[in-house]
C-alpha cells in the first residue's frame, strides 16, 4: 500500500486506488520542479520521487478547486474543470498520458469527473439555446474518452443549486450508483442522482444539516462512502456506540 502525493497547489484531496491511498494537491517547495509527484510506500514508510512530473498544462490549475480528480481500480484521472482537458496517471508505470478532451458534442463550462462502479462519468454544467443552465451526466469510455449521455437534472433541482447567486461551478462526490452534486457557494442543498442499472436516472435532493448561518463563511468539505452491514454490526458491538440521524 502506498500514497501518491501530487504537489503544486494550495489545497489537497484524497482518493483510493485499490490498496493505495492517493493525495493530490498541496503546497510544495521544489525550486527546480514546481510539479513533482511523490509516492509514499506505507509498508516501508518511505517517500519516493517519480521521474515524471505532473503535466505542465496543469501548472496554473494545480489547486483542487480548479481540478476534478477521480480513480478507477487501475488509474488516477485528473481533469481541468474549465477546459475539460484530462490526463491519467498509471501508478505502476509511474507515467502520465494525455491530454484528452472531454467532449460530449456540446459546450460545457464546468467539467466534473467521478467513478461509478469503476465506470468513468462526466457531470457537466452547460446552457441550452435559451441560455438556461443545465446539468447533464455522461458515461465516458476510458480508452477513447467518447461520451454517452445518461441523463439530465430536472430544472427543479437545478434551481435548488442556484439559490441566491446562480451557478458558476459545481462539485460532485460519487459512491456506488449514487452521484452527489452540490454548489460550493450554496451548500444548503445537495442534489442526488441514482444511476439506474440498464440506463436512466432517479433524482432527489437532501438538506445539508450542517450548512447553518455560522458555517456559511467557512469552506465545507464533502465526502461519501458505502457502509456495509458488517461495518454496522461492528459499530453495534461497541459499548459506547451512539447513532445520530439528522434530516
UniProtKB/TrEMBL annotation:
Descriptive protein name: F-box/kelch-repeat protein
Superkingdom of this protein's organism: Eukaryota
Amino acid at each position: 500500500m502506498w500514497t501518491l502525493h501530487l504537489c503544486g497547489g494550495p489545497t489537497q484531496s484524497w482518493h483510493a486506488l485499490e490498496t493505495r491511498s492517493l493525495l493530490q494537491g498541496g503546497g510544495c517547495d521544489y525550486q527546480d520542479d514546481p510539479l513533482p509527484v511523490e509516492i509514499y510506500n506505507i509498508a516501508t514508510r518511505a517517500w519516493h520521487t517519480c521521474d515524471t512530473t505532473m503535466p505542465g498544462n496543469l501548472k496554473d490549475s494545480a489547486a483542487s478547486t480548479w481540478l476534478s480528480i477521480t480513480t478507477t481500480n487501475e488509474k488516477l484521472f485528473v481533469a481541468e474543470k474549465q477546459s475539460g482537458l484530462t490526463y491519467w496517471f498509471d501508478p505502476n508505470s509511474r507515467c502520465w498520458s494525455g491530454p484528452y478532451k472531454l467532449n460530449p458534442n456540446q459546450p460545457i463550462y464546468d467539467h466534473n469527473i467521478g467513478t461509478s462502479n469503476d465506470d468513468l462519468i462526466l457531470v457537466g454544467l452547460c446552457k441550452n439555446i435559451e441560455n438556461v443552465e443545465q446539468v447533464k451526466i455522461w458515461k465516458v469510455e476510458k480508452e477513447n474518452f467518447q461520451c454517452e449521455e445518461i441523463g439530465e437534472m430536472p430544472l427543479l433541482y437545478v434551481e435548488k443549486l442556484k439559490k441566491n447567486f446562480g451557478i458558476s461551478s459545481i462539485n460532485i462526490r460519487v459512491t456506488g450508483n449514487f452521484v452527489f452534486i452540490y454548489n460550493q457557494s450554496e451548500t444548503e442543498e445537495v442534489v442526488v442522482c441514482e444511476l439506474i442499472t440498464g440506463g436512466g436516472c432517479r433524482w432527489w435532493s437532501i438538506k445539508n444539516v450542517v450548512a447553518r448561518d455560522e458555517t456559511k463563511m467557512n469552506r465545507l468539505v464533502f465526502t461519501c462512502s458505502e457502509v456495509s452491514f458488517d461495518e454496522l454490526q461492528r459499530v453495534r458491538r461497541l459499548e459506547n456506540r451512539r447513532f445520530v440521524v439528522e434530516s
